[in-house]
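User: Sequence in, structure out. Go.
Assistant: Echoing your sequence, followed by the structure tokens.
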Amino acid sequence: MKTSFPEHDVPSYIPHDQRDLAGAGAEGVRRPERTVADWIAEGETTIALFCIAKECGHHASVDITRLSPETKHSQIIRRARCTACGSRDVKLMRDMDAHYRRMLEERGFDPTPRPA
């Protein structure tokens, strides 16, 4: 049985690895592609790039304050290359290490797992 969540449905014609890029929201309406200015407005100063090439798994944080505010998600992905293996097969996401550090500083939230 297939369960459908309309507010999270993404049109099936968008390849799985490009659904975040397409930004299709509820009712299949496409949101504008994220830019460096969007991330900076949310308080981000770095993003994380992960190499998804087989047998690599390298990751790095990138300082986005050095990029033009108009730089789009797709432009960063197109230009990125793994410094360990040279692959262009990379994923971009929020730098969670920096995000959790900021949460700890601003709100005292510590995401470190504690033993039960």
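User: And one key feature?
Assistant: Residues 21 and 74 are 7 Å apart (CA to CA).
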